[in-house]
Amino acid sequence: MSELNAVQAYAKNETNCRFFFDKLCEILRCQTVSADSRHAGDMEKCADWLARFGREHLGMAETKVVPTEGHPCVIMHSPELPDAPRVLIYGHYDVQPAEDTELWHTEPFEPCLKDGVLYGRGTSDDKGQFFVWLSALKTLWAVNGSYPLNITVMLEGEEEVGSAHFASVLEAHSQELKSDVVIISDTNSVVKGVPILHYSLRGVMCFEVRLRTADCDLHSGIHGGVCSNAPREMAKLIAKLHDENSHVTVPGFYDGVLEIEPWEKERLEKVPFDGEEYSAQLGAELYGEAGYTTNERRWFRPTLDCNGICGGYTGEGSKTIIPAFCSAKFSARLVAHQQPQHIMDCLEKWFKDNTPSRAKMEFVRGDMTSPYLLEQSGVGAKLFAAAQEAVRRGFGTEAIVCRNGGAIGVVAEFDRVLGVPTLLLGLGSPDDHTHAPNEKFEMSNFYSGIVAGAELLSILSQELKNR
Ligand SMILES: [Zn+2]
Predict the structure, then answer these.
(1) Which residues neighbour ligand 1 (ion) by CB within 5 Å?
(2) pTM score of the predicted model
(3) What residue ranges of the chain have pLDDT lower than 50?
(4) Domain covering 203-257+302-368 in this structure, CATH number
């Protein structure tokens, strides 16, 4: 029997599948809600559990729980193989809160298997997905007693609360974390049962604009009609940000945006999509930038949105004033290769240039995450070909290839701090209810994913050799 067959046989063995499942359920029972300080103890317990699992079951003697000012991060290394390629597998063991238990059909922290679907908080995001990788590693280790390449596993505990300490962990451990590729399974496909490979993520940047038109609110009977109204000035600015075709009017906003390539359009056509169904799901009329389809708009094009506006009187009854102050919050979704810093400069200049002289404007910069693109040539093409082959072996089908409209901060950080490309292999389904009540994970994806994961590491050990 060839080595690959032995790996597949191990991963598909009933007793072993039971073991993977039972161990996954153990971590799902840990209430690792990173947002809630009452669960700080559960976070530590889960991190210790994972480190122990690495030592006892994965042959990762060099395993540690790295404390941060927030929740700890688990880092494990396989036995060192000089000159072999290095792969870093990332996941996060923290989860979203699940305090809305009346909306759950099962206990959020008591995993429940029904008709091949596992329900519980974290089943899809991200415990179920990263445990696919730990199970694949367990398979390789059990069958061979060694790994075909150097493996590092990094499990974060603050992904759901903005990864505040992630960059500092990367920076402090940059030497040992340096790899040829990062693999992350923490996204959802657009088709049930078919994994998805995302080669690009949008970035995001946020800012606030504060407008003051007078020292204080003014009596509209005495002063009405003679001075400007802050919400009205803000409304004019917001309206002016887009033209009638929904193009952003800010000079420089589209600098660096890559045009959609023919091969991308071809790939996009293969993604099953029903605009009317999507519209009905949202209860919203589809509308957007002229010249682009819905999926092009949400995955390939940058956007600029006002997220909220406040000013003047909104309490009970009425108050006849001319409001002196208005503020609005905005966010932009950015695509490769827009530079967040440059776009922020362009926006600040635009607001300065367009604020009427009768108002004072304050521009407050917020968070930003860079967009990400794994070029589909060179190493990117190699990684995708390897992943497709592994998915074929595990799932008996090809993965969907497309961009993703969201932002994943850690991907931008792996790129910025370590200069390492990330392979995003999404094993979640479109209806997994991540961050919502009744989160679930398809167990068929879990078991097929284990085979695909073990295969991918074997393929990469060959493909990355002559890098
Ligand atoms: Zn996640």
Answers:
(1) 125-126, 186
(2) 0.91
(3) 1-2
(4) 3.30.70.360
